[in-house]
Write a structure and sequence with these properties.
The complex is a heterotrimer. By secondary structure, chain A is an all-alpha fold. Chain A is built from 16 helices and no strands. Chain C is of the alpha/beta class. The interface between A and B is large, with 52 and 34 residues.
């Protein structure tokens, strides 16, 4: 979905779109983490709650709404994709049930389990993914790389248009979880920034491989350009035929992980972090109820048009989140540092 | 005397109860013991040697206290009975409250140190633990000749008393882990430990867990290397296994004896084990997914030959696979129960006749037989019998999911299994613990 | 703790129960021996009605049979559906490897069909597009007579590790689709018919512009196209007046520029050849000259055809992306291609002369050259 948005947004010079999105992401993450570091050992919810009811409501409610809608659109969109690509007779609800059930199960296991599962899945699935990505270069015609930029892309005039804003979903959803992991896990700021640099080649590839294979005119007609690009590779020596199946499914496993993270975040926000200690036995049912609710909502969405609409609405929320939350955290962090600094000096 | 009569009353129906009046040194005494546990003549000889000059019970007690005897002042019948069942010999004296519990020359009721039964060693020491906890502890001490080896000992159980030892290297062990174990044991000393399930209960670990939290091994060198890594080893009396706490995922692939090979070979063999586990999980599900739900993934030549092999098979691929898997499990279970004399015959029956005949009768396709044979063999490439059983369970989950959802179900099953493994913790140490917990920063 | 464990296992049990309920309705679960996997599909159109032929292999443990099924209808999907209804197995187009268009249909325009193939998920875009020079019934009949195993003969005909030859074009459906929408790319599609002693014979290649067959080009020109596209010409034998050579390597370099309003293309082809047959006396210079002249003649002939039909099958427009801005490229075919000046030169490297030396000690024809010493 991301490549089709970016390809649609521009005629050429797509790397500018990718880099712009990435720079936005980088700025957001840097601000966010800088702010978070001032509050050692507290997660986002605690920070918000401690800063007053109004701030908490302004920050947490949209976040919860955004995360929920993101979960719904993700489930619905990916089930649709799966049905489209290879399981045409299986009804949508069963695929959604499976996705939601697995995500719910993972979410009920807690944050540490989610991360460990992530590491294991990475070890298992990244080699095949890398292999497929490398082979996807077989059919590219490098001539399509030119021209590198044109007036439209150079002046960043595409930023205001709908396809580009929608494409930001790929960047925005992820950074929030960084605010939730403390106090359970500690991370170094630099490591996170370095890891996020890995995103750049991935995104560039996902946009450019279809462009280089098909040319912009043709590629802009595809719903899922990267998958089509992989579909055109013909490799005689592998025992499998439709490799794009494996690619897509590996991506879906990571999406399931992402979903479970979303569910977990929402359950934490909704419970206002209070489900510790005595009430911790309600954690699992909370996740179950949330998962069930998401599933039921997904059932109500009849077609792809609605999904697109929902994603567009979510874009407003996402812009709010991208701008407001890191800014707020940054401001709070700076304030806190000053306060602590003052105390330090007084002593 | 009253106490002696009480004790004799307890054991009056036991044919092996001995109660004799004899002379220890110069002192007349009543000797009580359970004859099935001790070697009477040798014991009396030893006691006689120690007590030649004693003329009264106190002297006897002094003489024996330095060596094989333990003095009990005014014990009650329960205590005496406990000592008797623990295999000691009790000497009681007339007119004196002193009772002496003497360690006898025991009957050899344990087999000698033999080769391991469930693990095979190609180039390494072949002595395995046996049922006696003291010899096990001795073997461990001989393996790890270090003055920092600590062995805590507990007597647990109310109905049946068992000795349990917790052994660790004090400069290496994970302190949090050790404290948790010790706390758990000391708070539940009255629980009976009769099996691995009850041991799990004693340590507060879930009995329902598919994945074993206690890594059992018969080899001292395995236990020693585990202690070096900071784990604790638990020995239970009458169990020829050492239980390593905690068990980690990597223990399935890491066998201490690998280090006796060159490093490149060691890594290759470990890689082979990992491939074995993956094959075991994936193959049955992959077959069903590729044959029934997503045949577009196969190459056309292979698709045609698979279709040719499945002509006239009466039921769908999923049922076929399930039936054959159950038959294989039956064969495995039967081969465990078989007496050694009939074993080879049944193997022949199972392998050749079942395999060949079932294909000729067109009940299953021959491709499936190959796949399932590969799966079963692969499931035993992991180290540890308990682990092999665990992974056999997981493949059914993946099979069912892939029958319904195809390759998507296969991968979802893998996600579920990974998630489950990620959630297992023992004493706060997760199953997937490697070095340090690193988090990922997925965007 | 116990509560949470129970709740979690409740979760798992619920999911398991859901799965079991779901099991009876295994929707996509159709065993492979209950599916028909056609490999070749033939499409023709007469009087607005489509007719579709499917060649379906029927595997069995002892022999493989082939079945040809055909039906007519208004759209291709409808026809497939009909066929599937009437057959005892489910027809799955997943393994379709070759799509055969009848020539009349190709001349009319296959745009819609190609678009529907790309849109639908069940036909792989890797399928090879082929045009058939004779009526499909006859072609399939003759093909089936020859084929007694698995029906992969036509597939292997185009297989790179099997029977493919650089004189055959090989275009996949996605490349056709790309050519329909691209500014600068057109494709050639191989044309076949049933042969006299072999089941399949090549009849050249068809020039496809925006989905319509507009011209026919010879196999030699197809070789040139393949060379241009960078596909190897190894193993191809060139026949000239005095000598036959085997091409063992090729490399091509282009320089694109604009002179005024006309694009100028300079191409240098480097051919490594090895001598196969000679007639009469020859030396290196002659061979090189002849080969160069032959190649240039062919290239110019091809360029003429391209200009006449305004079809850019060599992908020349791609080379001009550095020189022309993109908006102008949209008119490449109509504006710039007709004005293209092409300068084509061949550099021949005689890699070896086989087992014999070149400068002749041919039988009786000697003019006193040195005797070969061995």
């Amino acid at each position: 979905m991301y490549p089709s948005n970016v390809i649609e947004a521009l005629d050429s010079g797509h790397w500018i779109a990718v880099m712009t999105g990435y720079l936005v992401h980088l700025a957001v993450i840097a601000a966010y983490m800088y702010g978070l570091e001032a509050f050692k050992g507290q997660n986002l919810i605690q920070i918000c709650l401690n800063s007053g009811k109004l701030i908490a409501a302004a920050l947490l409610l949209p976040t919860a709404a955004y995360l929920t809608i993101a979960a719904i659109t993700t489930v619905r969109a990916y089930s649709e994709i799966i049905t489209l690509v290879f399981l045409s007779n299986t009804p949508l609800w069963s695929i959604m049930l499976l996705l939601v059930a697995i995500a719910g199960y993972l979410a009920s296991l807690g944050l540490e389990a989610i991360f460990r599962t992530g590491v294991m899945l990475a070890v298992l699935f990244i080699p095949p993914l890398l292999f497929i990505v490398c082979t996807s270069f077989k059919n590219v015609d490098w001539h399509y790389l030119l021209p590198l930029a044109d007036r439209e892309s150079a002046t960043l005039s595409f930023v205001a248009k709908r396809p580009f804003l929608e494409s930001l979903f790929a960047f925005a959803g992820g950074f929030l979880f960084l605010g939730f992991v403390q106090p359970a896990l500690a991370y170094k700021r630099k490591r996170v920034l370095q890891a996020s640099m890995l995103l750049v080649p991935m995104f560039l590839l996902s946009v450019y491989v279809p462009l280089l294979t098909f040319g912009r005119q043709t590629a802009s007609r595809f719903q899922f350009p990267y998958i089509m690009a992989i579909d055109t590779i013909d490799m005689r020596w592998i025992m499998f035929e439709r490799i794009n199946l494996f690619f897509l499914l590996s991506v879906v496993t990571f999406v399931t992980l992402f979903l479970s993270l979303l569910l977990w975040k929402v359950s934490r926000i909704v419970s206002l972090n209070k489900l510790d200690g005595k009430l911790s036995k309600f954690r699992v049912p909370a996740v179950a109820v949330l998962a069930g609710a998401i599933f039921i909502v997904c059932l109500q969405i009849p077609d792809w048009e609605r999904v697109s609409e929902l994603m567009w609405w979510n874009t407003y929320l996402r812009l709010y989140i991208i701008v407001v939350i890191p800014a707020a955290v940054l401001v709070l962090g700076i304030r806190r540092r000053r306060k602590v600094g003052l105390h330090g000096m007084e002593r | 005397m009253a106490i002696i009569d009480q004790v004799s009353e307890r054991f009056k129906e036991d044919a092996d109860y001995i109660c004799k009046r004899t002379k220890l040194g110069e002192v007349p005494a009543t000797v009580m013991a359970l004859g099935s546990l001790i070697d009477m003549p040798r014991t009396m000889l030893h006691i006689g040697l120690q007590t030649r000059q004693s003329v009264n019970p106190e002297q006897l007690a002094d003489a024996l206290a330095g060596g094989i005897g333990e003095t009990l002042i005014s014990p009650d019948a329960d205590q005496l009975a406990a000592h008797l069942t623990a295999g000691r010999i009790i000497a009681a004296f007339e007119g004196s409250d002193i009772h002496i519990s003497i360690a006898p020359a025991p009957k050899t009721l344990t087999r000698s140190i033999e080769a391991p039964l469930t693990e095979n060693v190609l180039s390494g020491s072949v002595s395995a633990f046996n049922e006696d906890i003291d010899s096990n502890l001795g073997m461990l001490r001989k393996q790890v000749v270090s003055e920092r080896l600590r062995a805590l000992s507990y007597q647990v159980g109310s109905d049946q008393r068992k000795r349990i030892s917790v052994i660790y290297l004090e400069h290496r062990v994970n302190r949090r882990l050790l404290d948790a174990i010790v706390r758990k044991i000391e708070s539940r000393l009255e629980l009976d430990v009769t099996s691995l399930q009850s041991l799990n209960g004693l340590l507060g670990l879930s009995k329902w867990s598919i994945v074993t939290r206690l890594n059992s091994t018969e080899l001292p060198q395995q236990a020693a290397s585990a202690m070096e890594k900071g784990k604790a080893v638990i020995l239970v009396d009458r169990y020829p296994f050492a239980f390593i706490v905690p068990s980690l995922l990597w223990d399935m692939f890491d066998v201490e004896n690998d280090r006796n090979y060159p490093i490149s070979l060691m890594y290759s063999i470990r890689l082979l084990r990992i491939i074995g586990v993956l094959v075991n999980f994936i193959f049955p599900g992959l077959y069903v997914a590729l044959v029934s739900v997503n045949p577009d993934v196969l190459r056309i030549e292979m698709a045609l030959s698979v279709a040719a092999s499945r002509i006239d098979v009466p039921y769908p691929a999923f049922v076929e696979t399930l039936i054959l898997l159950i038959i294989l499990e039956l064969i495995l279970e039967a081969s465990v129960r078989l007496p050694k004399s009939i074993g080879p015959t049944i193997t022949m029956v199972g392998g050749i006749i079942l395999g060949q005949a079932v294909v000729s009768a067109k009940l299953v396709s021959n491709l499936l037989i190959i796949i399932l044979a590969a799966t079963t063999i692969a499931s035993f490439t992991v180290a540890g019998f308990q682990n092999a059983i665990s992974i056999r369970v997981f493949k059914y989950i993946i099979l069912i999911l892939s029958a319904v959802f195809g390759v998507f179900g296969l991968l979802s099953g893998l996600v579920i299994v990974c998630g489950y493994l990620a959630s297992v913790t023992s004493f706060g140490i997760p199953y997937l613990h490697m070095a340090r917990a690193r988090d990922d920063a997925h965007g | 703790m116990a509560w949470r464990g129970k709740a979690r296992s409740g979760f798992v049990l619920a999911a398991a129960a859901a799965l079991l309920l779901v099991l009876p309705g295994c929707w996509d679960n159709v065993d492979i021996n209950h599916r028909s996997l056609p490999i070749i599909m033939g499409v023709s159109k007469h009087d607005g009605q489509y007719k579709v032929f499917l060649q379906i292999p029927e595997p069995s443990p002892h022999s493989d049979k082939l079945r040809i099924v055909s039906a007519t209808g208004d759209t291709i999907n409808e026809i497939i559906n009909d066929i599937s209804t009437n057959m005892e197995t489910r027809v799955d187009l997943l393994h379709l490897k070759i799509i055969l268009f009848e020539r009349s249909f190709a001349e009319e325009g296959v745009n819609d069909s190609v678009a529907s193939f790309m849109r639908g998920r069940d036909i792989s875009p890797k399928a090879i597009a082929v045009i058939c020079n004779e009526p499909l019934e006859r072609f399939f009949e003759r093909l089936t007579k020859y084929e007694n195993r698995s029906g992969l003969m036509l597939y292997h005909y185009f297989g790179e590790n099997a029977g493919w030859n650089p004189q055959l074009a090989r275009t996949r459906i996605w490349e056709m689709f790309r050519s329909i929408h691209s500014y600068t790319n057109d494709v050639v599609v191989p044309v076949i018919q049933s042969g006299s002693s072999t089941p399949i014979a090549s009849a050249g290649s068809a020039l496809i512009k925006r989905g319509r067959m507009v011209d026919l080009i010879s196999p030699d020109d197809t070789l040139l196209i393949n060379v241009f596209m960078g596909r190897g010409a190894q193993g191809k034998i060139e026949v000239m007046d005095h000598v036959d050579v085997l091409i063992v390597g090729n490399r091509i370099r282009h320089t694109a520029s604009m002179s005024g309003n006309a694009p100028v293309l300079k191409s240098r082809l480097r051919l490594k050849v090895s001598v196969l047959e000679t007639k009469g006396d020859l030396n290196r210079a002659t061979i090189e000259k002849e080969l160069d002249a032959l190649m240039t003649k062919r290239f110019n002939r091809l360029l003429e055809k391209m200009k006449r039909n305004e079809a850019d099958i060599l992908g020349l427009g791609q080379l001009f992306r550095t020189v022309l801005p993109r908006e102008r490229l949209a008119d490449w075919r109509s504006e710039y291609l007709p004005r293209l000046k092409g300068d084509f030169q061949t550099e021949v490297i005689l890699q070896n002369t086989g087992n014999l030396k070149l400068d002749g000690h041919e039988e009786g024809n000697g003019t006193g050259r040195k005797q070969g010493g061995g």
